[in-house]
């Protein structure tokens, strides 16, 4: 099968020929380069109208010269997400070409194409996928016929966050490669001294708006631009690597593929490769021509979809500027799930064997402490992928936060482990052992999910957010609560752990994010997530503020393709 792909979601007018038998890809691209500032949608669309015919013609001529007039079996195009005016131009070109050649048309999701090219090349079966592109940043995992969004940016895409700073400094678009070059110069010429910038992760979600503004302010205050570029990269890429590691830990997957234009950055690839090497996970990043926007990835996924019969009649081939990756029915893969690694005895099964979380190693010890209770020793081990200064700060701050807020949460009526000892220097906590297993390892978890809802509502009423309430950070058992109260209630069967990302806040938005993080983890790990989510929300509503649930709907509905 040979597929002609067309891409033009924002800046890159591109056409490609994918020959499935030879597994070869020919790509012709014509980029739009704005004279000043960022991408102007109208200019970008004009560029598409001018450039698409040329790149399509080049690819079609090459195909027909080699294979004759019936060279093409299907036409695939980027249906979204992207800039509406650009998508419409490309859609029109694709429809007329499919009509003229009399072949089927395939409508491809651009973000799913960014990740499928890595899966195709690596041969990995069930990777977690990190898409680091201009307008987006998200982690995806396959589960039951869809790519679930395990985590994503709550505001700007990662490339856009970097480009926002370079625009402020007056550099031309795209800014990413210039930031990379400046950061490399700084690392070579200086000791790699780091500027402290906001570092914001919430479970597997993250935010870049604070860091872009802080970088702009630092520039206005006279901090050398190379130092800001270096520090921007160190913070932003460490955030992406941390959430990727958390996704591996949560799902039990042991493979990662990377996609998107920002993935051309050597430092990002280096951090991910080093994190994976430390965990014993496999890592793949395609070569640069398949990372930045290109029609090659559209043609490759188009061929898989066409082979699965997933073509679209021309009247139904409308573009969708807000097309999310989790809306795509994945017709070209079978039913396996990214969370397959959670059978008994595996690291993610949540029963009691020493384990490695995303941040820490956890050792289970039987302590002769009079009460005969078991303990866990949690060590936040240094992460060699991140800058030593950033690593020290994060490990110290999180150890302190965990010790303090685990205890405060218990005083607010939420079952949490007793903190026996905190060694801040070594970033090590000794905690009471709670529960028999993680909620993620339980098949019938609705009772526990309801309790997690009530627990979070109590926490929020006390002005605390958990920051990482996942199904691996809820421990369940006949009696998971530490207190020996006479009558154990239903809520005593579920305890919350891992308060390293917890903080004090009364903001509805922060409370809603806690709910969003929990629901994301349920969708990532549960076979049938909906009953758990319903029970969780009912539990929250019974104790907490309905306004937070309204805000949750708002968080979920926000279009993030800006
Ligand atoms: C929807 C679609 O139009 C959009 N496409 C897109 O964002 O183009 P892409 O080629 O994936 O990524 C471009 C971004 O990639 C950044 N970039 C390119 N080279 C870079 C480098 N060496 N380091 C950091 N960023 C880099 C650019 O600054 C720019 O922000 C998307 O995939 O989100
Ligand atoms: N007090 C405890 N009692 C029983 N089990 C625990 C306790 N603390 C941790 N564990 C177990 O160890 C695992 C990892 O611990 P924890 O979540 O605190 O580490 P982490 O590295 O921060 O993990 P992640 O960031 O992946 O959630 C938990 O999922 C749980 O199975
Ligand atoms: Fe892209």
From TrEMBL:
Stored PANTHER family:
TRNA N6-ADENOSINE THREONYLCARBAMOYLTRANSFERASE
Q: How cofactor binds (record note)?
A: Binds 1 Fe(2+) ion per subunit.
Q: What GO CC terms are in its UniProt record?
A: cytoplasm; EKC/KEOPS complex
Q: Can you say what this protein is called?
A: Probable bifunctional tRNA threonylcarbamoyladenosine biosynthesis protein
| Residue positions binding ATP | 354-362, 378
Grouped into one coarse class, the protein's main location is cytoplasm
Q: What catalytic reaction does the record list?
A: L-seryl-[protein] + ATP = O-phospho-L-seryl-[protein] + ADP + H(+); L-threonyl-[protein] + ATP = O-phospho-L-threonyl-[protein] + ADP + H(+); L-threonylcarbamoyladenylate + adenosine(37) in tRNA = N(6)-L-threonylcarbamoyladenosine(37) in tRNA + AMP + H(+)
User: What is any one GO biological process for this UniProt entry?
Assistant: tRNA threonylcarbamoyladenosine modification
Q: Return the broad EC class.
A: transferase
Q: Where does Fe cation bind?
A: 110, 114, 293
Q: Which residues form the active site?
A: 468
Q: Which family is it part of?
A: In the C-terminal section; belongs to the protein kinase superfamily. Tyr protein kinase family. BUD32 subfamily. In the N-terminal section; belongs to the KAE1 / TsaD family.
Q: How does it assemble?
A: Component of the KEOPS complex that consists of Kae1, Bud32, Cgi121 and Pcc1; the whole complex dimerizes.
Q: Which UniProt keywords apply?
A: Acyltransferase, ATP-binding, Cytoplasm, Iron, Kinase, Metal-binding, Multifunctional enzyme, Nucleotide-binding, Serine/threonine-protein kinase, Transferase, tRNA processing
Species of the source: Halorubrum persicum
């Amino acid at each position: 099968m040979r597929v002609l792909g067309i891409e033009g979601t924002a800046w890159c007018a591109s056409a490609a020929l994918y020959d499935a038998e030879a597994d070869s890809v020919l790509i012709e691209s014509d980029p739009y380069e704005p004279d000043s500032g960022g991408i102007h949608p109208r200019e970008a669309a004009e560029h598409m109208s001018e450039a698409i015919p040329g790149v399509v013609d080049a690819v079609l001529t090459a195909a027909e010269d080699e294979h004759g007039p019936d060279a093409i079996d299907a036409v695939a195009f980027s249906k979204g997400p992207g800039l509406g005016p650009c998508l419409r131009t490309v859609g029109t070109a694709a429809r007329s070409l499919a009509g003229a050649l009399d072949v089927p048309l395939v409508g491809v999701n651009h973000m799913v194409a960014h990740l499928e090219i890595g899966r195709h090349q690596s041969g990995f079966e069930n990777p977690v996928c990190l898409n680091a592109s201009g307008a987006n940043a998200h982690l995806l995992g396959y589960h039951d016929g869809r790519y679930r969004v395990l985590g994503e940016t709550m505001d700007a895409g990662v490339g856009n966050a970097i480009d926002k700073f370079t625009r402020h400094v007056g550099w031309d678009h795209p800014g990413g490669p210039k930031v990379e070059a400046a950061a490399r110069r700084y690392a070579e010429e200086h000791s790699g001294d780091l500027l402290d910038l906001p570092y914001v992760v919430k479970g597997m979600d993250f935010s870049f708006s604070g860091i872009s503004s802080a970088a702009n302010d630092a520039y206005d205050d006279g901090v050398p631009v190379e130092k800001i570029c270096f520090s921007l990269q160190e913070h932003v890429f460490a955030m992406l690597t941390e959430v990727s590691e958390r996704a591996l830990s949560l799902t039990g997957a042991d493979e990662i593929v990377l996609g998107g234009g920002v993935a051309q950055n050597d430092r990002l690839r280096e951090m991910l490769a080093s994190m994976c090497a430390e965990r014993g996970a496999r890592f793949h990043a395609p070569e640069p021509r398949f990372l930045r926007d290109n029609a090659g990835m559209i043609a490759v996924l188009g061929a898989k979809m066409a082979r699965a019969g997933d073509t679209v009649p021309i009247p139904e081939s409308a573009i969708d500027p807000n097309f999310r990756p989790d809306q795509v029915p994945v017709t070209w893969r079978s039913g396996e799930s990214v969370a397959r690694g959670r059978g008994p005895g595996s690291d993610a099964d949540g029963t009691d064997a020493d384990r490695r979380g995303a941040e820490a190693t956890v050792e289970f010890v039987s302590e002769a402490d009079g009460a005969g209770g078991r303990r866990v020793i949690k060590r936040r081990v240094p992460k060699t992928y991140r800058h030593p200064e950033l690593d020290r700060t994060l490990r110290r701050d999180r150890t302190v936060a965990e010790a303090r807020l685990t205890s405060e949460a218990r005083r607010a009526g939420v079952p949490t482990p007793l903190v026996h000892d905190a060694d801040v220097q070594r970033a090590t906590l000794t905690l009471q052992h709670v529960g028999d297993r993680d909620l993620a390892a339980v098949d019938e978890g609705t009772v526990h999910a309801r309790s997690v809802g009530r627990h979070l509502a109590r926490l929020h009423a006390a002005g605390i957010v958990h920051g990482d309430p996942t199904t691996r950070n809820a421990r369940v058992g006949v009696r998971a609560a530490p207190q020996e109260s006479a009558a154990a209630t239903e809520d005593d069967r579920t305890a919350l752990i891992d308060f390293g990302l917890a903080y004090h806040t009364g903001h509805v938005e922060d409370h809603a994010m806690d709910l969003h993080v929990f629901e994301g983890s349920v969708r990532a790990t549960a076979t049938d997530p909906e009953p758990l989510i319903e029970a969780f929300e009912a539990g929250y509503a019974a104790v907490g503020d309905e306004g937070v649930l309204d805000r949750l709907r708002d968080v979920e509905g926000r279009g993030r393709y800006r």
